[in-house]
Amino acid sequence: MRYFDEYCEVHLDPSIAPCTWVFRTNEKICIRFGIHLSKNPDYGQIVYELNDGQGYCDVDRITTQTESVNENGFKMFSIVLPPIINGGGYRYKLGYVDTLGNEHTSKRSQFLFVCDEAPRSITEIPSEFLGYVNHQPLYGPKPKLAMTSSPNDWQARLFYSIIIDRFARSADNSRAGMSAVNYDPTSPHASHGGTIQGVIEQIDYLKSLGVSAIILSPVYVNAPDGYHGYHPIHLLMVDPRLGTLQCLRELVKKAHESNIAVILDVVNNHLADSINWEKYGSPVGGEFKYVQGDDSAVMPYPIEARNTFLFHGTEYTDMVNQRLFGFLEDWRTETTYVRELLIQHLKYWIAETDIDGFRYDSARHVGLDFWEPCVAEISRYASYLGKKQFLQIAEHAGSTHEEVIQYNSAKFTNFIDYPTYYTIKHSLNEDNHLRGLADYFCGFLPPSQRYHTAWQNNIMFLDNQDTTRIFHLFWSRLENIIEARIWLHFGLACLILGPQIPSIYQGTEQEFSGALGLYQKQDTREWIGHDCYVREDMFENSACVWQFGPINRKIFEPYDKNHQTFTLIKQLAKIRKRHPLIQRGKRTLLCSRSHELRCLLIHDNNDTQPLLVAINLGNNPVCEEAFTIPDCYGSFSDVDILITTGDGTFNIVEGGMRIKLQPFTFVLARLL
Questions:
Q1: What CATH number labels 2-114?
Q2: Where do the Glycosyl hydrolase family 13 catalytic domain residues begin and end (predicted)?
Q3: Which tens digits make up the pLDDT trace of 154-211?
Q4: How far apart are CA 482 and CA 352, in angstroms?
Q5: pLDDT tens per residue across span 546-567
Q6: In contact, 297 and 289? CB cutoff 8 Å
Q7: HSE-up (13 A, CA, CB side) for residue 523
Q8: Which of 68, 83, 330, 488 registers the highest number of CB atoms within 10 A of its CB?
Q9: Please, what is the end-to-end C-alpha distance for the chain in angstroms?
Q10: CATH assignment of 584-671?
Q11: Do 2-114 and 584-671 show the same overall fold?
């Protein structure tokens, strides 16, 4: 029994709620609880909210059956909830009516779901012998749907990072609040109702922008504070507030039909805060919060995770084995048992959804003793499925290349390039604010050490869900939004036409300008750093008040395809895809005068028509007529301007190249 207030609850019986909070459609949903005799209970009742996931909702109360009086002075009741279709769920409260006819209802609510697809145990995922790959036996689930081969043009693609909860609500918003996650559109710390179906309905928007690869935030069922997806409590189930497994399959299918690859963010480092550990310095050990009676806790899935010995306690303080942020449960990934469990869960998501890659969250907080066999095994499994260029992207947030390159032996296909991002961000404080961006575009920032698959294969970004938005960094340094937009367009040109794989974060195309902020905890009144203010809603949600005044507020119509920054990104993405030189060509600096005017040639040895770029990094207009292209690069009679971010142009005249550029302008042309 678990006792709280006047109630007691049968909570460790694996056949009833709340120990089991995921049921099959053919299973009875039984609840057993008791009321202390001192409260004079006449009969028990359950107050529930039902949502079938198809648009039908109901709020009702149902009378329980009386069972007995137990030895501790509690009158026991039981109830079987009305059946509900696959994909539905309940949120319920315990209650009773006393002998005077007064109703009483517990303040605390609990949830349960009906899902036929999600395995509750790793053993429910059939692992078959699939054959030999790289001379080693391969085991795993056979896919239940046709697999799509991997793209062979990752370098040409523009990536786009999505937090599902904040990207798009579906036209039918019936799944709002259908989760353990707190739903409150007024709070930047809670779910706002974005869904997988919402992403499906915006595929045309993404395609129009020029996006050809999306990175989806984790779809796991999350703890109450996990609107973002990074606090999982069930590793094998799609969170009902986001949709269903079938809905995720439909998203991948629709994306593939639009030539958009889908990368799924996954969490191998931790589970949500679930265990009460002994304080540091005390005897080692811990117990699940659910077992100890924590009102908001649940037992995690798969059921194999219900063992505290699979996690590191507070005695671990190093980067790899400590609890992330001090509260997320850190897997003992150094053990074979945990390693096999997590690898099997990764295979499950590939086989069930036909995704094209993984983004591995918190990669530097997991040891190489896990990553080396994991990456190798997922590569073999994906190759067996025909996905020979399946991406395995590591989110290693190290500030230097030396830190990140220490993970070379894992053989990730890509890293998210935080060191280069930090170099560019820090350069914004220099006299020539945009020099770091220009250095990146010109190819001056590769590290001296070699990455496993070359620096050019890494994913480059200017902002993401964990950083202050680049537009905020520009706007806060300038007098007005127009000047900030000039810098933004310059930066986007350097990013999308740069030497690495470019990735933008949802909202950049609509000039979102959020910043990292501070959040005051209600219980301790302590101020802590928070990233919720860089996770603004793409959809209309006037109920939420964002911090920091107008610089952190939206000034756009949702999904505006006519926005000038949207249009620029669309043009840049098209150019990158159409001109392989941008992806693989050599970048040769032809002119750099006072570090203000830069002229760069992008070329190869195959007689491909080279590309010429002119950049003005200064505060003054540039008008040059003496610039010439050395004869060794060929003879040219004209130029075809492909794009300019401002008032800039150049053309060939007798005696050289005439260049006119306004301050902070980027121009790209093809030499003819």
A1: 2.60.40.10
A2: 161-576
A3: 999 999 999 999 999 998 877 888 999 999 999 989 999 999 999 999 999 999 999 9
A4: 47
A5: 766 556 666 678 999 999 999 9
A6: yes
A7: 0
A8: 488
A9: 81
A10: 2.60.40.1180
A11: yes
